[in-house]
Design brief:
Elements lengths: L10 H26 L3 H4 L1 H21 L14 H16 L12 H26 L6 H38 L4 H6 L2 H21 L1 H36 L2 H6 L2 H19 L15 H12 L1 H19 L3 H27 L3 H22 L7 H14 L10 H7 L1 H12 L2 H4 L2 H12 L15 H5 L13 H9 L12 E4 L8 E4 L6 E7 L2 E13 L5 H6 L7 E2 L6 E4 L2 E7 L1 H17 L1
Antiparallel strand pairs: 1-2, 2-3, 3-4, 4-7, 5-6, 6-7
Helix pairs in contact: 1-3, 1-8, 3-4, 3-5, 5-6, 5-15, 6-8, 6-9, 9-11, 9-12, 11-13, 11-14, 13-14, 14-15, 16-18, 17-18, 18-20
Length: 605
């Protein structure tokens, strides 16, 4: 490792890093208190996410990237502040809902943090290298050195903070056991958590960065372990490609997981390859890391990586062509494109330059790293919001007939795509297409009317039975639920009244204690309703018990029963529908009524 940097930070830099960490902790405390006291910042997700993004990302960039406090270059990252604020503002707008919800839960923040964190990590490498060399970094070696240092610093810092708080909580629990609850209360207060945690972060960061030789030792040990594992990863990939010649690619499509595992192995191979092959080898350089035959095995695996990129892209395209775009699939496509940029570049350079390919690969790494950072930033802006693309493509599939109105997932756009999905639904419900599909328009309007995904508040006027009846589909024979049963469902505040999808109903034609089954969306358990002495009752829940033939298990699990349900003779409440067996589990109210009826019969006798 050709790294001859100073071993310690100067005194002003150490003080500056600690002070910056404390200021970051105070800023995060202020945002936490704003949420706790319901300040206007907490109500507006745009301001909240924008300020959180700046308060977390900008100080973190300085904490790992700053080389000397008095460098004029330190003013350059301040240009990131408006960019970070814009990115956070857009994230808050995406998560902002028209209804006054306390918290709108989305997975957007996690993806935002990961993608933006990777982008800033890469930019911090270039900033740190520029601060050291005083020029724009073009050499690959310093960037690699700093990537190792950043990774190990963050790992050790996380471990230290975890142990620190683990000890504090153990101590608080110990004192609480003898009746002293002061420390347990203190350690749970935000005014203690934030300043103390970030003070410890600043002190620990300075300690770690002042012991640079320790980081080098850990790196040497890590490189030795990676060197031992690299041939294994290469062999697994080569054997997989070889077996595909005999098995074909269909098993890859059937599992649905093989392409994801292959992508993970490909990324691991790229990472390990760069960790091992980072120095030139020859008469005047270090000896090669492996014997010739083993080195050729590793290089062959790297050269064939584009095959894996093609397989992964093919598998993803089949899913998109069948089901359309989703946010997860679009993220997977982005990851595959970025990975393919590396695999194709490596393969072409190794085939073209052969023994002299290493310098070209390193130059390619520098350019590709900047490309990755740029792409990960752009996809978090309104300029390339993938949620907007997904909503547009899903509606386009609906309008051109590739997706039926019944299969169109209204709730996915409403709850999984944030504001872009909501705006797309609002535009769709006002379109001529929706006007020609009244059932679809009604589902969209009900979805937009919901304030929470799993709210139990009725979406229809419960005083209007015609409106209530629309929440239940017709029985296969065309019958609808009788009005007394609809009234009972309203009294019970049935979950069907708060669903955008109509509940399926089934009128039983055979002689069973119940006459109607009601299936809520996404449920295979039917609620059995029967009429007794002019009153409708919920008699129990009809659940799949098993099958008469083992080969029918999957069929019975994926299909609902039909109206020719037959009760089997015997003491148990067992029913048969074809080869499927069902069990009626009575409700506690029904059991109590039966006991009451038996008691009245005994008294009458």
């Amino acid at each position: 490792m050709d790294d001859h940097r100073a071993n310690t930070l100067d005194k002003p830099t150490r003080a500056g890093l600690i002070l910056l960490a404390v200021v970051q902790g105070i800023a995060l405390l202020a945002l936490h208190l704003a949420i706790e006291h319901e300040h206007w910042l907490a109500a507006d997700q745009r301001w909240l996410k924008a300020l959180y993004t700046v308060a977390i990302a900008l100080p973190a960039f300085y904490l790992i990237g700053m080389e000397r406090l008095r460098d004029r270059l330190n003013f350059l990252p301040l240009l990131l502040a408006p960019l970070l604020f814009w990115l956070g503002w857009h994230l808050g707008w995406v998560e902002q809902t028209p209804e006054p919800l306390a918290w709108a839960r989305h997975t957007f923040t996690f993806a935002f943090c990961i993608s933006l964190g990777v982008a800033l990590f890469i930019l911090a490498l270039f900033f740190r290298s520029s601060a050291t060399s005083r020029t724009w970094p073009t050499a690959y070696s310093p960037l690699l050195n700093y990537s190792w240092e950043f990774t190990q610093t963050l790992s050790q810092l996380t471990l230290f903070i975890g142990v620190f708080w683990g000890l504090l909580l153990l101590g608080a629990t110990l004192f609480s056991a003898i009746g002293v609850s002061f420390f347990e209360t203190l350690f749970s207060e935000p005014v203690f958590i934030y300043p103390v945690t970030w003070l410890v972060i600043g002190l620990t960061l300075v300690m770690i960065r002042n012991r640079f030789r320790l980081i080098q030792s850990v790196r040497q040990m890590s490189e030795a372990l990676i060197k031992a594992l690299l041939p294994l990863v290469a062999l697994i990939i080569l054997l997989f490609f070889a077996m595909l010649l005999f098995t074909g690619v269909q098993p890859v499509w059937d599992t649905g997981r093989a392409s994801c595992i292959l992508m993970a192995l490909m990324l691991t191979l790229l990472l390990f390859f760069n960790a091992v092959f980072h120095q030139a080898h020859g008469p005047q350089h270090d000896s090669p890391p492996y014997p010739t035959w083993l080195r050729r095995l590793v290089l062959l695996a790297v050269v064939l990586l584009p095959v894996g990129s093609v397989l992964a892209a093919w598998a993803l395209w089949l899913r998109i062509d069948q089901y359309g775009l989703s946010l997860d699939r679009l993220w997977a496509a982005l990851l595959q494109v970025l990975t393919a940029a590396f695999t194709v570049s490596y393969s072409l350079l190794l085939l073209w330059r052969r023994q002299a390919a290493l310098p070209s690969l390193q130059r390619a790494n520098v350019g590709l790293a900047l490309l990755v950072a740029l792409v990960l930033i752009v996809v978090n802006t309104p300029l390339a919001d993938m949620r907007h693309w997904v909503a547009e493509q899903q509606i386009k599939r609906l309008q051109d007939g590739r997706t039926t109105a019944e299969a169109f997932d209204v709730n996915y756009l409403r709850y999984q795509l944030g504001q872009p999905g909501i705006l797309a639904l609002q535009a769709l419900v006002e379109s001529k297409f929706a006007q020609s599909q009244p059932e679809l328009a009604r589902r969209i309007e009900l979805s937009l009317r919901q304030t929470e995904r799993w709210s139990q508040e009725p979406l229809v006027d419960t005083q209007n039975l015609d409106d209530v009846a629309q929440q239940f589909s017709e029985s296969p024979d065309g019958d609808t639920l009788p009005e007394p049963l609809l009234n009972l469902l309203v009294e019970q505040n049935s979950a069907c009244l708060s669903q955008t999808e109509p509940c399926q109903t089934l009128q039983i034609s055979s002689g069973t204690p119940f006459q109607w089954l009601v299936y809520e969306p996404y449920s295979a358990v039917g609620k059995a309703y029967g009429e007794h002495d002019g009153d409708w009752l919920l008699l129990g829940h009809l659940m799949l018990l098993g099958t008469t033939q083992p080969q029918d298990d999957l069929t019975c699990q994926t299909t609902l029963t039909t109206n020719d349900l037959e009760r089997l003779t015997g003491p148990a409440d067992i029913y048969r529908n074809g080869n499927c067996l069902y069990h009626l589990q009575p409700t506690i109210e029904n059991a109590r009524q039966q006991l009451s009826a038996q008691g009245e019969e005994i008294s009458g006798e």
